[in-house]
Write a structure and sequence with these properties.
With 541 residues, the protein is an alpha/beta fold. It has a domain of 231 residues: Rossmann fold (3-Layer(aba) Sandwich). The chain is built from 19 helices and nine strands. The strands form two sheets. It has a seven-stranded mixed sheet, with helices on both faces. Helix 9 links the parallel strand 2 and strand 3. Helix 1 runs antiparallel to helix 17 and helix 5 runs parallel beside helix 17. The longest helix has 32 residues. The two termini are 46 Å apart. The relative contact order is 0.17. This is rRNAD protein. GO terms for molecular function: rRNA (adenine-N6,N6-)-dimethyltransferase activity.
């Protein structure tokens, strides 16, 4: 890592650029200046001397900063007594300005145990984070009252208004939804039973397909049992006895759109799945469909966008990506599509390449890390522990580098001595032969504050990298002649991958009008705890 930002070559750009193209180019300039922060692993902090490679003007201020001051640097809200070098302030300000707005991380620091805005039967087996996402993606907003002051809270028991997927359904006239990567079918169940849509849930793991079908049958049984009997808390909307159709299959990114599905791997028993887009006009009934993917992992999101661009059967797409480090990048064998970059706009920019480490960093939860800094959480010691352990492993055997060690999910609750006794055997080393009580180990542990400061700099760039990846997808869709937008739909404190990419063959203005306002209105009201215990069958699994 260089001791100062790198000089970048002049990037030749067309005279006419969209704001999104300019933002992508500016992001790449920033990443080229500070690329050393992107491509290093924190576990190499001691073995590679990462601290000494920071700009010299930054080192004293970062070394003396408290966790609360680092949180202020990360969130742009200042900190008590912080005196940062101007170059560091400029770096932080540029990173915040170029990252796509992530919405307001207000309200509780975590989602409620149970959400009162989902029918009790739809909350079964669903963790709080997923409940929050299903609400926002499906239907959770309230009608906008033009007479209500902008910042006034919504009155209690306000009737829900259509949210993103239901708005898309109404705008496109599509009542058929294909949920790709449906997992256990939680979103599919909400769309089918809760909104009455015709849903095909596609999942490559046959075990999850079986589990989803079992949950559907449980819900149908309960629905029949309680129909006409009422419920202790009246649901906002009654459920329809319309279960989703589950299909075991995987998406082939390189296949023509009519060959939408491949058999699952390993193959599932029984006949091959029917293609949900295989009818004369697209779907099985000849109509168009909406395609959605909640946390479509790695190459799945770009593959779905490519299918949307090629397939007239797909009227619109709503995607939430994740696991960016699993994206396929150059070089790839002939015939294998890239997951990044997709657009010709980004591909033409010098320096657009993103390393595995950079794409992994894009998956970080900035708001969660800022919260840990403000609270002085013991979780902050985990990176230092791992960096010290890496130093000890490399000293014992230089060939053992970057091993995927997981000494325990609660490593932050251990002393380093306990942590090392768990971690060293995973590397094939005997803890009794490693000098855990040496002065060198103690000196490294005393530098935990520097490791935390270094991690904070990486966290500043995480949303910028994610923005570049999502801008690439947005630009690709627009290059194909379609409409596209990025919407911060989830609370980033609950769901760090909170940006939904919406693509449509028709304009999106009506669909997106007031969506952010409706979501903000619900921040203080939608996620309250129910305040009473539910029966064991209605809790999360």
């Amino acid at each position: 890592m260089a001791a100062a930002p790198h000089r970048t070559p002049h990037l030749q750009q067309p005279l006419e650029q969209s704001p999104e193209q300019r933002r992508a180019a500016d992001i790449i300039r920033l990443l080229m200046l500070y690329r050393p922060l992107l491509d290093v692993f924190v576990i190499d902090f001691f073995t590679d001397g990462l601290w000494a490679q920071l700009p010299p003007a930054w080192q004293p201020a970062l070394a003396s900063a408290t966790p609360v001051q680092l949180a202020g640097l990360l969130g742009g809200r200042g900190g008590p007594g912080a005196a940062w070098p101007l170059s560091l302030l400029a770096f932080a300000a540029a990173a915040r300005a170029l990252a796509f707005p992530r919405g307001c991380p207000g309200g509780s620091p975590r989602p409620p145990c149970q959400s009162s805005h989902l029918h009790p039967l739809l909350r079964r087996h669903v963790k709080p984070k997923k409940q929050h996402e299903i609400q926002r993606l499906g239907k959770v907003g309230v009608p906008c009252n033009p007479l209500r002051p902008p910042n006034a809270p919504q009155p209690p028991n306000s009737p829900p208004s259509p949210q993103l997927l239901q708005r898309l359904s109404q705008a496109t006239g599509c009542e058929r939804v294909v949920d790709i990567g449906a997992g256990q079918g939680h979103l599919s169940r909400f769309l089918a039973f809760g909104l009455g849509l015709s849903v095909t849930a596609v999942e490559s793991d046959g075990r999850l397909v079986g589990l989803a079908e079992r949950f559907d049958q449980e819900l149908l049984w309960e629905l029949g049992k309680t129909r006409g009997l009422g419920h202790k808390r009246s649901p906002l909307h009654p459920l329809t006895p319309r279960a989703p159709q589950h299909v075991a299959g995987r998406l082939d990114p390189a296949a023509p759109w009519r060959e939408f599905l491949l058999p699952p791997n390993p193959p599932a028993p029984g006949p091959a799945a029917r293609n949900p887009l295989g009818g004369p006009g697209g779907s099985e009934d000849g109509g168009q469909v909406l395609v959605t993917g909640l946390h479509a992992c790695g190459d799945l999101s770009p593959a779905l966008l490519c299918h949307f661009a090629r397939s007239p059967a797909v009227a619109a797409v709503a995607l939430v990506g994740c696991c960016y480090m699993k994206l396929s990048t150059a070089p790839q064998p002939p015939g294998c599509p890239l997951g990044y970059p997709l657009s010709t706009s980004v591909a033409a920019l010098p320096g657009h390449q993103l390393s595995y480490r950079a794409r992994e960093a894009a998956c970080h939860a900035l708001e969660e890390y800022e919260g840990r800094l403000r609270e002085g959480s013991p979780h902050l010691r985990a990176h230092c522990y791992r960096a010290v352990l890496e130093s000890l492993i490399r000293a014992a055997d230089p060939a053992k580098r970057h091993l995927g060690l997981q000494p325990g999910r609660k490593a932050h609750t251990l002393s380093f001595h306990q942590y090392a006794h768990l971690g060293l055997p995973l590397a094939g080393l005997d803890p009794t032969g490693v000098p855990l009580d040496s002065g060198a180990v103690g000196a490294m542990l005393e530098q935990q504050h520097k490791v935390v400061a270094f991690c904070t700099l990486g966290q500043l760039l995480a949303p910028v990298i994610e923005t570049l990846i999502l801008l690439d997808r947005l630009l690709y869709v627009r290059e194909q002649g379609f409409h596209c937008a990025l919407v911060p739909l989830f609370n980033p404190r609950f769901s760090p991958r909170n940006l939904v990419l919406v693509a449509s063959r028709t304009p999106l203005a009506t669909v997106l009008a007031g969506l952010d306002r409706d979501s903000a209105d619900r921040d203080s009201s939608e996620d309250e705890d129910l305040g009473e215990a539910e029966s064991p069958g209605e809790g999360q699994s």
